[in-house]
Amino acid sequence: MEEEVIEKKKSFRFLNILLFIVILSLGAFMYSKYLGVKGLITYEYRVDSDILSSNFSGVKIIHISDLLYGSSVNNDDLDRLVKKVNYLKPDIIVFTGDMVHSSYKMNDKSKDKLIETFKNMNATLGKYAIKGDNDYNDYYEDIIKNSNFTLLNNSYEKIYYKDNNYIYITGLPSMIKEDINLDDAFSFYSDENRKYTICLIHEGNIINKINDSDYEVDLILGGHSLNGSVIVPYYGSLFIPKESSDYYTHEYKKGITNIFISSGIGTLEYPYRFLNKPSINLYRLKKTN
Fold first, then answer.
1. H helical segments located in 126-244
2. CA-CA distances (angstroms) from residue 57 to 20, 44, 52, 171, 255?
3. Does residue 218 have a pLDDT over 80?
4. Structure pTM?
């Protein structure tokens, strides 16, 4: 009789544990599908460099990536994004690709809304963009141009501030859709007169091509991975695109190069986010020594 009571208690305990696991799993699923994909947080970083000219010390850069409009992102989210960006008063804004989700059927009304959104983002020194793999369509370049962004595609620009000192910003296209031409993108490069250089990429594995080259880059900003979308405690990122398999988390340091990969705002084929809220990044450049 006593053994039967013990067995019943064990069975009851097992059922309780099983029920708890089911409830916990269901709760995590519901959160990642409906709550984890909403809201917008800002990650802030200080980026130190001894090659940066003193006039650029304190310059603020806002980094936006993987908006993926039409996934979990709607017009209200666009309005909140503009308010957040302008509240932070950036000097430079960069967008590292994937404006609209590939499954979204674009129309004139949505296009006008995206132009309004990106045009209303204010930056004192300039706004720059590159193409992600979802941006090879008949409207992306139109939106970028009409939003007063400069599209960088294996090309570069000089950015001046306060005096004749300047920095370079260069941009590379999606490695999925187009050839990366480092010689064109870094045609300004000079070992004898090296300037602070920012490089915009979409897929993280493009960094391997830069590492294998003779070009030194001070700051690389990328996207595509969404930092793995779902982050499991003690395991890590769950959904990592193969094109970002080497660089997919928030931050890396490789020699003199600071690397930041945005977690993005929207969602891809897996419409979930867990421990990985939609976000933008804010960088403050700082001259050292």
1. 140-146, 182-185, 206-211
2. 52, 16, 7, 22, 21
3. yes
4. 0.92
